[in-house]
Amino acid sequence: MPRVAAVPATGLMKVLYRLARRRFGAVPEPMEIIAHHRGLLMANGMHELIAEKVSRTLPASARELAVYRVAQRLGCSWCVDFGTMLQRLEGLDVERLQHIDAYAEHPAYTDRERLAIAYADAMTADPVTVTDADVADLTAAFGEKGVIELTYHIGLENMRARVNSALGIVDQGFSTGEACRVPTTR
C-alpha cells in the first residue's frame, strides 16, 4: 500500500484520470499520488509526453531495455510492471526480459542492446561507474544524439523508480493486462 493516499477522482482529476484510463487501461497509481501537488502533476505529465514525443533517435528496444533495467536494478515493481506493458505495446519481445540478468551473453540481445543495458547498470550504480570508454562505445553505436537520449531516459527512470519506491507504490497489473481491474480510487 502506498505511503501517501491517492487523490480521489473529482473535478479536474476526474478528467485527467479518464484520459489516463483511456490510454493505459487504468489510472497509473503514481499519477494518483502526485496529484496531491497539482503543479508537479502537470509538470510531470507534460514532461513525460514531451520526452516520449521527441525520443526517436534510439531504437525503441535499446531505450526500453535500458529503462527496464534501471527499474529492475532499483527494485521498483511498479516501473517493471509498467515498463513491461510499454514494451509489449511497442511490439517488443517481453519474454526475453526474463533473461536480462544474463544480457551480456544471452542470444536474445543484440550488441547495441547490450551496450544500452550495461550503460543503465553503470549509471544506476552508486557511485556511478560510467567511463570514457563506455561513452565512446555508445557514441559509435548510437551517435552523440543517441547517447544523450539514452542518458536522459536512464536518468529519468532512476528518478521515477526512486520516487515510486520511496512512496511505496508497487506493481499494478499493467504487464499482465489486468490493470483494467484495478480501482482508480481507494
UniProtKB/TrEMBL annotation:
- From which residue to which does any coiled coil extend? none
Q: Where does the record place the Carboxymuconolactone decarboxylase-like domain?
A: 55-121
The family database entries (PANTHER family) matched by this protein are listed as: 4-CARBOXYMUCONOLACTONE DECARBOXYLASE FAMILY PROTEIN (AFU_ORTHOLOGUE AFUA_6G11590) (PTHR34846), CYTOPLASMIC PROTEIN (PTHR34846:SF10)
- Please give the name of this protein: Carboxymuconolactone decarboxylase family protein
Question: Which organism was this protein described from?
Answer: Actinokineospora guangxiensis
